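Why run this: before we spend reagent on co-expression, it is cheaper to look at a predicted model of the complex and decide which construct boundaries make sense. The entries below are exactly what would go into the expression plan.
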Amino acid sequence: MTVLSIDSSALPVSCAVISDGRMTAEFTVSIKLTHSETLLPLVDDMLKKCGLSLKDVDALAVSKGPGSFTGLRIGCATVKGLAMALELPVIPVPTLEALAYDIYCTDALIVPMMDARRKNVYAAIYEYKDDGLYELMPQSAVSLDFLLKKVDSYGRKAVFTGDGIYPFEEDLRAALSIPFSVAPPHLSMQRAGAVGALALKLYEKGLYTDAENFRPDYIKPSQAEREKALAEKNGTLRELSAGGHSLYV
Amino acid sequence: MKDVLILGIESSCDETAAAVVKNGREVLSNVISSQIDIHTLYGGVVPEIASRKHIERINQVVSGALKEAGVNSSGLDAVAVTYGPGLIGPLLTGVSFAKAYAYALSLPLIGVNHIEGHICAVYIENKELEPAFLCLVVSGGHTHLVRVRDYGEYELIGRTMDDAAGEAFDKIARVIGLGYPGGPKIDMAARDGNPEAVSFPRGHGLSEYDFSFSGLKSAVLNYLNTCEMKGEKIVAADVAASFQKAVVDVLVVNAAKALDNFGDKRFAIAGGVASNSLFRSEVEKECLGRGVDFFVPSPVLCTDNGAMIASAGYYKFIKGEFSSLSLNGVADLELCPG
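The model came back. Tokens follow.
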């Protein structure tokens, strides 16, 4: 089985091919380039360098979220287009679980976290059990403060990974009483190789869908939906829907 | 010559649309999934929600267009997609999907300017229409007076200096309580109103053919404020009719000037606002008086749709103007760069 996997959920844009259990190629770029311009040429380049064509691919895997809303959409729309044209199954892979999969078979807790701005993170907590990742806290959008208290409460060693480790390393030091470490650069970024490897496990469990039914998992509603829900709760919806011209609505 | 079938994909704002068009002018299918009911709850288009809806619907819309056209993907000759101008999130969804779809089918990809799409919508029902002609594209996001010199060759004669005409419709409809989308709501309300009831200013831009609608918008808001303070009752139909007349006057004056100065014998209107009944009839009057042929697409082709993108794509296809896999969405894409 050959899986083409994609991750464009954050700063890196990455694609990989895993064929019969071996990774044939993984192309990853992590610079401030527009994923929209980079992703498909990267896939094309990789397939050509491997002497492969899309016809050799049996399934597509993609990092489904959380992540940058725009980045997720570029990756997911790309996969939806490929999957529809080629009539291939789509294996949606949780972004943070793939990040956690870069750290293998440790006794420590694995805490992938992505910077979601204003001291908020997308994070999850995993541990290894029976050679597989076991979820202690599902992918969530939480405050950094909440996450660190939660991790600390386990009283066990933890490994942090993901782009959240860069802005928040000082915060980790200040807030945690448990022993912890942060993953090295090559294991702390979204990589399509991990997405593809995890996708194979999900595929075995029947966790795949098709082009039409697949959609990203943003975890968070849009800002407008959040504000609307809040306004409904507070009874101030009229002002909100007037878009600033509250007087006449 | 062999028939050319192009799949056109449009997602620049709040319509997810796809169509299959034969030889640029024969619509085999035109599927439009509107998000109006969702954005109505927010009083206007919310870009993030629009983007999310596009990605949920794009596969169904594209497969619907193929099915309705009675073709499968192997029957297509190219994939055309709007890459700007528009809202960046919605644009990127369509662009990313179209690129991948074309790539996987080894089909040429054609990036289309949304304004050019609106102009090409005029070709679809007017098989005899050929460039050159003048075209006034008026929609929620754009107000462009364009001279179409040839297929794919445009001269931008005038444009709005501030708000698009359709944007002004949306805003005023909202403040007088008609809701979203403003264009059809104001058109409807204005039928029972007096267009002379309130005198609103007619704004023009710096150059001869430019437009301006922000002054008009402020004038309407000021009028409503004043009425509110004086405790006077607002007659929404009169405000709608007077506002609509002011917008149409501004559009028509510039159109008439361009007709007189350029001497074109063909004039077209396109874009969402081209569905406005007063705008249609006033421009037609100006054209008739000058012996100018007047063209306007049916409402379904005035609104954002995939057929117009496929049509524009066709004229690029026959010129061999294709896009690369690095095609990006461009929110402020110009019709005539430089």
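The helical segments of chain A are 35-49, 69-86, 95-100, 144-153, 165-175, 192-204, 223-234, 237-241. The first strand of chain A starts at residue 2 and ends at 7. Bring this page to Monday's planning discussion.
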